[in-house]
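Incident log, structure service

09:12 report received: a user says their structure output differs between two submissions of the same chain.
09:20 pulled the input from the user's history:
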Amino acid sequence: MDFENKIEIIKAELKKPLPGEMEQFKMAPEFRRSFDFPSPAKKAAVMICLLPGGQDLQIVFMKRPEYDGPHGGQISLPGGVFETIDSDMAETALRETREEIGLHCEKSSVLGALTPLNIPVSNTIVTPFVGSYNQVADFYIDKREVDFLIIASLGELLNPSCKQKEKWILNGREMMVPFYKVKGNTIWGATAMILCEFLAVISGSGLYPQFQCSDSDRNGT
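09:34 re-ran on a clean worker, output below:
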């Protein structure tokens, strides 16, 4: 099956009821007690950008530089805070993808959105979008925002061995933290929660029968 056919299948899956918080919660650290949305809160958007990768599809992640802030040094998806120049949240995700990693995706390439997620540590409500880029990716990273890129296949991310859990010390407390281990990098927190919902959508699409979930799993029944 070629890239465009796979993308059409994913686009159709994103129009169905989403697994939402049920899947997000599976990758939430123990300190994450509430999914309530605060008011007021900043609005932000991120992009799961799907690229062709041989017989598979790939996602682009980025490592943020170390800095004195809640997300310094973490692995994230391209994205950022809504600005007044943006017509909507999808435009925010596209603009940030262009600015941070150099991919000029068209609005028509946006396949759909996942479930918005509250990030308490930065008082932000983030909307994840899924988009596609069927060209040779000529990345140009903004070194102020990005240390390096990580490109992982969906097959790799869906493999159960990629999902791990450890005891960490966070905010002076020992707690269990689930994460994805990808090419030696740890993806946790909000990015892992967003990724978990997306992978649930993918595993119900039929594209990866070895990781197929049932309709009842998808709908939380």
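09:41 both user submissions now match this output. Likely a transient worker issue. Closing.
09:42 reviewer note: The chain has six helices and eleven strands. The mean pLDDT is 90.
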